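Entry: Reverse transcriptase domain-containing protein
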Amino acid sequence: MRRVFKRVNTRKAVGPDGICGRVLKACADQLALVFTDIFNLSLMLGIVPSSVKRSTIVLVPKKPRPSDLNDYRPVALTSVMMKCFEKLVRDFITSSLPASMDPLQFAYRHNRSTDDAIAHLLHTTLTHLDEGRGNYVKMLFVDYSSAFNTIIPSLLTTKLGDLGLHTSLCDWISNFLTDRPQSVRVGNCTSSTFTLSTGAPQGCVLSPLLYSLYTYDCTATSSSTIIVKFADDTVVMGLISDNDERAYLEEIKHLENWCQENNLLLIVSKTKELIVNCSKKQERHYQPVRISGTTVERVDSFRYLGVHISQDLSWSRHTNSLAKKARQRLYHLRCLRDFRLPSKVLWNFYTCTIESIFTGNITVWFGNSTKQDRQALQRVVRSAERITHTELPDLQTIYYKWCKDQGQENCNIHKESPDVDKHFTIPEEYRELISSIENCRCSAPPKPCNFPLIMIGIVPSPSRKEQFLPGQKVRVATKDGHVGSTGKLAARHEGFYTITEQINEVAYRVGLPGNTNGNLLRVGQVGCALGGWRGLQGASVMVGWACRRKDTPTPARDGTTHLPRSQSPAY
């Protein structure tokens, strides 16, 4: 109890009892023993005092401009003291549950997040599309009406007993959810108190966990269907082969019957269907999905867990949404700059309000986004740099960092995870080999290469020239998308070269590639020069400008220079 009291968030709203979190945190040592006896007695008797079950319901808008009562979310303000007790009960229940329970429920599980849910959904989709020509995937995004508020305590207690929880704990949870005094507050007006015995109030610590346990038996009944869940966000996936959708339609019917048995109401108007089909030549006539006699709407894109998933699995719509939202917040950043706030404050504001937009689920969508989409997002970062007068990390660096952090967490992923077979460590003897293959961008990173880089197809300004010294090694590569006879000729001579002679300030003589199988440039660590080519004579004379681009940072002390990945030929 002492540890929980000392970790109380003092900014949380006060419950009906009027005891704020600051009091519990400041007096944790004095109150720990007293409340320990009270909570132990409550668990032993299986009774929760009515005074701590009391809650005040406030309405939180779901949209910036709500126009209907359904646009508000009812949130219960409960006692801060009771929330501390709920945390202890939640941790005990979590440690008592079997690890194999509901592996496709990604919410409230250790080392699982929205990234894992989306990644599992996309990986399953792509795997099925690759297995056979003509395969396609149907996704039904299910929406429930007030899912937390429809839990039946007696049915929940039965399911908890089936999971192996002690009878006294099940009785305590049942008492916690029944006979709850509640009142509604809108502005300065408060309604009279009424009592409810159904549902788990939104705002309680235990409610999300209890809901996931309440729906743990909602699983797929066929090998060609999958039900992915993140709390109440449910997706029914149908892996269709040979145009046989019977298992998918039967799964939806089974889900509809399960909802009726468990007092859950499906909102058909908010339930959407998305079809992913890579075969554009073959026209198909898909069977419509009907729930309760109403046809489910079919969409081209759906926003699931904060990510826009399109029917072609592209990320243009998602990145456009992120760029638009980030550009809107640049206005507030400019206002803070006009107030002459220090750069440190502007940097903190950028990190909290703008960079956080880009980092949401970045490990899922950034790696497969197009170069144009990344450049659109990077332009927002460059605008923020000009406003804050601070060097900000590019999105490629942020993406690497998040992938590295998530990879380290997944190294200890539980063996019961549905994605355990997708996480493995590359053997030591293969890491150097894989790092030299340019197409394996998602494998172990190559070793750093300090050789300067000359790219064919870019003509920078000749006003800033740099000299190459004889004996210096360089790597020659063509610019992405460069066409023409010069580019085709130069592409045959990509590799590592040695400067043998400087003819003039724009022309050099080089030797043949000395080590074509050497280490490729590490993405993000390229050399100091970019060349604009005028000709290439037998790969012996290079004519072009050797200058530093404006956005090329100064080389580090170790001789390397960091440049965004989009400017690297390895990209």
